[in-house]
Amino acid sequence: MLETWSLRVLVEVAERGSFSAAANALTMTQPAVSRQIAALEHRVGVALFRRVPRGVAPTAAGTIAIDEARAILGRLAGMEARLGAFAELRTGLVRVSAFPSANTEFVPEAIRRFSDLYPGVDVSLVVGGWRAIRSGDVDVALVTDWDRVDDDGVALVPLLEEEHRVALPAEHRLAGLTTVPLRELRGETWIEGSHPDCLGPLEGLEKALGGPPRIGFTCDDWTGKQALVAAGMGVTIISTLAGSAVRPDVALRPASPALPRRHVLAAVAPPATRTAAASAMLIVLTTLAAGYH
């Protein structure tokens, strides 16, 4: 196996153009550099440099070796930097954004776990989204597969898959059923919410209802939407991600046919530019999601 120091000498000679210049940069003697290159050439069985009037230049094989060496050294440096930053999470900041239903239980629990693990790192819950990952204003953004995310410069990490339930007033005529036939709700008033905590793909709901839903209210506020349901003003759809946060005078029931599932993902910067705190939060989120029901 090749030694990393030999690769470093190889790259230095290529960049400096001579053994003596590389020796000065590496605080070595010129003969020591020459021996390193000779040993490397003997190991790979091919000449890596040729003599030129003012030093050396890479051969065709040397050019390939130099490119590979640069890549290997770069990856090693990146690994050292990332592991070092991870080990030093004694201070810092991670900024998280999420949609309302994720903020009812899932995200607060993730923040609690993260704060227990890294008490010196501040966690901020901010308004943003996956686009703010690119601008550097958000470190971790929770999104769903109902979002159209341009993944150029953004990495998407799957977290969990959630189901949806019909939300009815507790006294609704269908609240006593274990499963609500959607066609029975065709004449009901529907309450729309803000994306992605909305009625979902309306084409699927329209097909299940046997016609387009009659949307009477649009409410961006999570508690306001529940209040409208509880007051008997209409019905809506709520994800199981937020099921435990639903008020007692609202009944959640599975639907027939089943409502579309939704995948929740974490949008983060690519590994090369991701902060250590964002990487640590991502681990917390994926661990929490693995045991989430």
UniProtKB/TrEMBL annotation:
Keyword Aminoacyl-tRNA synthetase included in the entry's annotation: no
Similarity section: Belongs to the LysR transcriptional regulatory family.
Domain of life: Bacteria
Pfam families, A to Z: HTH_1 (PF00126), LysR_substrate (PF03466)
Stored SUPFAM superfamilies: Periplasmic binding protein-like II (SSF53850), Winged helix' DNA-binding domain (SSF46785)
Entry protein name: LysR family transcriptional regulator
CC per GO annotation: protein-DNA complex
PANTHER family per the UniProt record, alphabetical: LYSR SUBSTRATE-BINDING (PTHR30346:SF29), TRANSCRIPTIONAL DUAL REGULATOR HCAR-RELATED (PTHR30346)
GO molecular function (one): DNA-binding transcription factor activity
Keyword Transcription regulation set for record: yes
Alphabetic keyword roster: DNA-binding, Transcription, Transcription regulation
Domain HTH lysR-type: 1-59
